[in-house]
Amino acid sequence: HKLHPDDYVPSDGRPWELDTFEKNVQRAHEYHQHKLRHKFFELRHEKKVAIPTEEWTIFPGDLVQVMVGKDKSKTGVVSHVNKETNAVFVRGRHTKLVNDHENFAESGVNSIYRQVEQPLYIHKGQVKLVDPSDNEPCEAEWVLNEEGNEYIRISKRSKFQIPVPQLARATSEYLTPDRYVEVEGKDTPAEVVLEKTYKPVLKSFEEEIADAMGIQDKRKLQPTYWY
């Protein structure tokens, strides 16, 4: 079963996790059943408005403070974020006890429990950055630096700069961009990527092909106008 684009709902779970996979399969089944039974009615889901990328201020590696739940007022480090649902996950905070073998209890498999971090939503004020100047929670914003050539993250209250952690720049290929090593014969060199190979001209596609192949069209064309 595959999710239809009309039925896609942002989730805090990762697609390869068993619970998320089962929910996606169930949602896909319900979607197709609904289509068969109610031909002229669309499924409606609660719309989640994601925070724009340029306004996102919390990244992996940031020190934050939990504002709700059993770990309220405790600080922790962000492990990963989900920008589709405005959620962040704090390492070792706001956890829930989960039985990994709950679905196999009837088979006699012993239960294995572990603490799993639950999402904390930024737009609901459930988590906030820690201001380095006084170690208190704060709201952050992006402003231009004194030179006017780069945006920096500062605390709205103290105007103190909060540097973006290096972990926020890590990808599956490198920890930091300057430590990336190109693989010869596999990676496309930067100079090849930046090379301009297309020269725009005021000709139709057919005229460009004719010129490239040396075909001379002696027909008299009707005048065309460019707006």
Question: Residue-averaged pLDDT, rounded?
Answer: 84
Regarding CATH, which class of the domain at 53-169? Mainly Beta
* Poorly predicted spans: none
Fraction of helical residues? 10-25%
Portion in strands: 15-25%
Radius of gyration: 27 Å
Structural class: alpha+beta
Order of strands in the sheet with the most strands? 6-3-2-1-7-8
Summed up, the helix count is 3
Report the oligomer. Answer: single chain
Element string (H = helix, E = strand): HEEEEEEEEEEHH
- The CATH architecture term of the domain at 53-169 is Roll
CATH-defined topology of the domain at 53-169: SH3 type barrels
The count of strands amounts to: 10
Question: What is the overall silhouette?
Answer: extended
Distance between the termini: 48 Å
Biggest beta sheet attributes? 6 strands, antiparallel
Give a written overview of the molecule:
The mean pLDDT is 84. 14% of the residues lie in helices and 20% in strands. It has a six-stranded antiparallel sheet, with no helix packed on it. The protein is built from three helices and ten strands, in the order αββββββββββαα. The chain has 227 residues and is an alpha+beta fold. Among the domains are: 5-37; 53-169, SH3 type barrels (Roll), CATH 2.30.30.
